[in-house]
Amino acid sequence: MSKTFADGLQTLETVSLEVEPGEFIALLGPSGCGKTTFLRIAAGLEPLSDGRLTVESAAPDRPAEVGYVFQTPTLMPWASVLANVRLPLTLRKKPRKSADAEAKAALENVGLADFAEALPRQLSGGMAMRASLARALVTKPNLLLLDEPFAALDEMTRFRLGDELMALQEEQKFTVLFVTHSLYEAAFLADRVVVFSPRPGRIIGEVRNGAARPRRPDYRTSQPFQELVEELRRLLSGDAEPSSSPQNMS
């Protein structure tokens, strides 16, 4: 696929990516390389200039569900946390009783059951992002798209939310496309890291992470993890030869 905006700015050039169901893929690259544009195209928020994109459903008799988590929580400040999480179900005209039950279950999954009636201003940054994640997951999506969701959080909160996201994905088996600038975040979370060139974005390499799940915090200090981070650094800096096939790091 390719993407050129009306002003002539080309953000993506001949990008080809096949994603397996249940895979956790990190999209890594410099600022402005088209990662967010790629995510918006996958969500149906941005049209393609050339090529095609197919999002397959887990069940052949219904369309795919796609959840999207933005860089900021984008919660409605006047509404309770429960109402924010319930919103996608409300827009689908789901009966209030069942919508409330599903929204409360989503909040339970992200550890916010006790904050259902709180307002967004009463939440910490990490809690607000948890609420945003619950809202994206309340429709039980096949595909979850996350655009640098932890970028504004402190390091320890990022680690904790990353662990929680992996646990949710293991439990619910949704597919993940996760945009990040962080080599360490990509190396810890993903099954496969896809590296983009500067604009116009092209895929210049892929590295698979063969480490078993669930990944313990001490994996971050292991030699295989450090080698994976170094391989990603080399790809980003142009010190490695572009790779058309994924490399395995385990």
Automatic annotation (TrEMBL):
Q: Which Pfam families match?
A: ABC_tran
Q: What's in the keyword line of the UniProt record?
A: ATP-binding, Nucleotide-binding, Transport
Which InterPro entries does the record associate with it? AAA+_ATPase (IPR003593), ABC_transporter-like_ATP-bd (IPR003439), ABC_transporter-like_CS (IPR017871), ABC_transporter_ATP-bind (IPR050166), P-loop_NTPase (IPR027417)
Superkingdom classification of source: Bacteria
GO MF, one example: ATP hydrolysis activity
Question: What range(s) does the ABC transporter domain occupy?
Answer: 2-223
Family as reported in the entry's similarity comment: Belongs to the ABC transporter superfamily.
Instruction: Give the protein name, as stated in the record.
Output: NitT/TauT family transport system ATP-binding protein
List the taxonomic lineage. Bacteria, Pseudomonadati, Pseudomonadota, Alphaproteobacteria, Hyphomicrobiales
